[in-house]
Amino acid sequence: MEDLIEILEELQPEVDYETTENLIDGRYLDSLTILALVSEIEDKFGVEIPTVEIIPNNFNSAKKIWSLIERLREE
Amino acid sequence: MKWYIRLFLFCFILFCLIQVLSILFMPNKSNLSQFGVYNKTKYELLSEENDTIDVIFLGDSLIYSSIIPAYLYNKYGFTSFDCAEPAQTIDNTLKYLKIAIESQHPKVVFVESDVIFRNKDNKIRRRNYMNRELKNYFPILKFHNNWKQIGQGQSVNALKGYKINIKTKGIRKDVLKQREGIKNSNNKSNIIKRNKKVMQEIIDTCKKNNIKIILIDIINYGNWSYERNNAVAEFARENDTVFLDTNLIEYEKKIGIDWSRDTKDLGKHLNLNGAKKFSDFIGEYISEMNIVEDHRNDEKYSQWNKAYELYLKKILK
Amino acid sequence: MSYFNSLYLFLILPIIVIIYNLIPKGRRYYLLFVNLVFYFIIGNKLIIYLLLTILSVFLCGKLMNKYDNEKETLLKKENDRTLVNGKIKKKRKLVLLLCVLLNVGFLFTFKYLNFFSSNINLLFELLPINCVINVPQILAPIGISFYTLTAFSYIIDVYNNKIEASNSFVKVALFISFFTQIIEGPFTRFSETADDLYNAKKTTYDMFCSGYERILYGLFKKIVVADRVNILVELIFNNYTTYTGAGVLLGVIGYVIVLYMDFSGTMDVVCGTGELFGVKMPENFRQPFFSKNVSEFWTRWHISLGSWFRDYIYYPLSLSKPLKKLTVKSRKVLGNHYGPLISGTIALFVVWFLNGLWHGAGYTFLFFGMYHFVLIATGNFMNPIIIKICNYLHINRKNIFYRVFQSIKLTCLVIIGELFFRANTLKDAFAMFSRIFTKFNLTNTNFLEIGLDVYDYVILLLSILFLFVIGLMKEKGINVREKLNSKKTWIKWTILYLFILIIIIFGAYGPGYVPVDPIYADF
């Protein structure tokens, strides 16, 4: 989880990732940041995020992104 | 079930509100009790003051796209009204005439001769027809634009039945068939008996009321033929009536229609430009008959001056 | 056919709803019947293509389902998991491909064949090739660009295992052919509306009220505002050489107003109609003119089209294997912001090329797409620089003045884009554009001679102010209709009566007005 927040902060430093619950809907992360984020996560955590999973609901908060990663790891 | 009743109540109150507003927006309410809301909406002529119209034009779209009463008044001084609707049937022509002469005593009535060929069962575009009828039951739909005239006293119908169309869709010079090219033939189109009878009733009604009646065929491109002309001419002769066919070459030259500029839909109807030319022709024609007066300095007809001003404003659009 | 036909809205639609509620059982079949009759009335024989599309995605979905079930049994027999998975995946991919090809084929034949063949002929003329392809003018099925993409979203979602393929033909047919959305959208997803449609709930009083309130709101936008401004727009776009630059500018601004009011008004009617049947449609507009930049604008204007392109073109493309590799490599060299920009921009180009093409087969539309591509790509490129400049100048980017500045800048950019969208030809568009700057001549412009009088301008200003206030409330998260419906009956009714009468009296209909043709219905 800390690793993830580190990545996020590197990509977009102006957000408080502990509390924000609408990263996508509030337009804190734009599509380019998502592209960078996906490639970074795949790099660091060794998972592959299929495009189907790229929906606001999976990316709206750091917690949700983390649970997505954990889910993908299990599969 | 309860909410259906609530809904019904809502609609009922709305209906009442609309009817009250409709009457408020209706021009010239003096003859409202005589004709009722429906007729006053359907027959635009009924918004004119009683006994103020000298000439009435009855017929279909050719009438309301070719004759501009406000323009005629300003130039020749007599008052007139286009009592026309799209694809008018001859029965409606008669009906409109009867209603018109209840409140007006015109000197001349023109009837567009096309109505005599129109079969009662002719396809009328249903949806448009229903939309038009709807407006007659909810007059506000027709008169709502009068809110612009509120506070200026009695609202004035500026166009007097004329429908402005400034679009131009002319006929290319190279496709235009000159009228000289059309050969006269002795054949004539068939007029169905029933229509003949109704037309005779129209003529009789006029004669009884001391109104001069003239059958007229308004200039247009494509719909006219010698066969039709022959048929109407014969009918007119039999019934001792004047038939003015403005499609004949002599008139076409006199009117001076330029088919590349003066039509809105490849010759079927005239546009504003063409309508002015045609109105000039018909204005001269009526003036030469010497039976209508010049009202331009008459206090009683002052609303016509206002109508002309409004008309000028509208054609600037 | 426009949804704004008063006979349809206040006579036919209520009758459809009443019958819908009188039926005790099988309302979904009735709804499907209504959909098909509706389409048959507007599209006549061409309904066959709609049915083919529905049938093809339904069958392909079932086929994919079947392969998935085979997988289970195969897995029991065979031990090599990856081999089986690969085999099944291949089969499913083939089915998807066939289905998409078939429907793209229809779309292409009906909408783009003429455009492409005329271009090829032009090319042949330039090169000394003596050959002319003759393609007859064909009448396209109404709404084909809408229902085809909707059908695609279903089959792609099934392919991606995002949803399960439906076993009910009725459900799929209802989803694709819902009569209120078939002409002008919005694009819906199977997961959003299919269940509601299939369940076909009875209408309650609240549903009825709030549905019709929404319809009235749309009607207001359309006949009080859009149809009124349209007089001016028609005059100016068709005879722009007779007007000064200021007049042309007014016409172009007017067109953006017409486009927004007509389209978002239609969406209000569509969503309101959906509510009558208990279907919650996705919003297609979210106060677009409050956006910060062009890229955000497109997440607030025609949302369902933007998200369709995002989900089915942009992400699949930019996260495809080759582009992903490119991103990883370029990030190492260019850093976090500019790294993903390359593959993002490639995908963006494809999206906007297709978006332009979707709007119509013509160069003005392609130009419109490319214009937005350039704007958004430049925006992405400039963003870090702008942030740096702002920080250097100590400008707070959340400051109200900065926000207003952004909105104005955005509006100008959008207005220019829509000028190319509306102009009769590309040449006219450039001529109009330059006229605004070279012959502005404000003092010689008589704004009262462009079809509208003082009264019209007053009504327009008041209406737009009203819509702006409502927009502001929505932006703040206030549900206006809910608020209205919670008021006492007599207050609510008075407000509704006033609103209806205002529409009736101040609507721009009748002699002298030209209603806006449903702009998006042609796409």
State the gist of this model.
By secondary structure, chain A is an all-alpha fold.
Structural notes for this entry:
- The complex is a heterotrimer of chains A (75), B (317) and C (523).
- Chain A has helices at residues 2-11, 31-45, 56-59, 62-74.
- By secondary structure, chain A is an all-alpha fold.
- Chain B has twelve helices and five strands.
- Chain B has helices at residues 2-25, 32-42, 61-66, 69-76, 90-103, 126-137, 140-143, 193-208, 226-238, 249-255, 272-289, 302-315; strands spanning 55-59, 80-84, 108-112, 212-217, 242-245.
- The radius of gyration of chain B is 21 Å and the shape is globular.
- The model of chain B has no long low-confidence stretch (mean pLDDT 86).
- Helices cover 73% and strands 0% of the residues of chain C.
- Chain C has 19 helices and no strands.
- Chain C has helices spanning 6-22, 27-43, 47-77, 81-126, 144-159, 169-177, 190-199, 205-238, 245-276, 294-297, 303-318, 321-338, 341-359, 363-393, 400-422, 426-438, 454-475, 480-485, 489-506.
- Chains in contact: A-C, B-C.
- The interface between A and C is medium-sized, with 21 and 25 residues.
- CATH architecture annotation of chain A: Orthogonal Bundle
Q: How many alpha or pi helices of chain A?
A: 4
Q: What is the total domain count of chain A?
A: 1
The chain-level mean pLDDT of chain B equals: 86
**What is the CATH C level class of chain B, in words?**
Alpha Beta
Structural class of chain A: mainly alpha
Q: Give the ordered list of helices and strands of chain A.
A: HHHH
List key phrases describing it.
heterotrimer, A: 75 residues, mainly alpha, Non-ribosomal Peptide Synthetase Peptidyl Carrier Protein, Chain A, 0% strand, B: 317 residues, alpha/beta, Rossmann fold, five-stranded parallel beta sheet, 12 helices, 5 strands, 8% strand
Give the helix/strand layout.
The complex is a heterotrimer of chains A (75), B (317) and C (523).
Chain A: H1 2-11, H2 31-45, H3 56-59, H4 62-74
Helix pairs in contact in A: 1-2
Chain B: H1 2-25, H2 32-42, E1 55-59, H3 61-66, H4 69-76, E2 80-84, H5 90-103, E3 108-112, H6 126-137, H7 140-143, H8 193-208, E4 212-217, H9 226-238, E5 242-245, H10 249-255, H11 272-289, H12 302-315
Parallel strand pairs in B: 1-2, 1-3, 3-4, 4-5
Helix pairs in contact in B: 2-6, 4-11, 4-12, 5-8
Chain C: H1 6-22, H2 27-43, H3 47-77, H4 81-126, H5 144-159, H6 169-177, H7 190-199, H8 205-238, H9 245-276, H10 294-297, H11 303-318, H12 321-338, H13 341-359, H14 363-393, H15 400-422, H16 426-438, H17 454-475, H18 480-485, H19 489-506
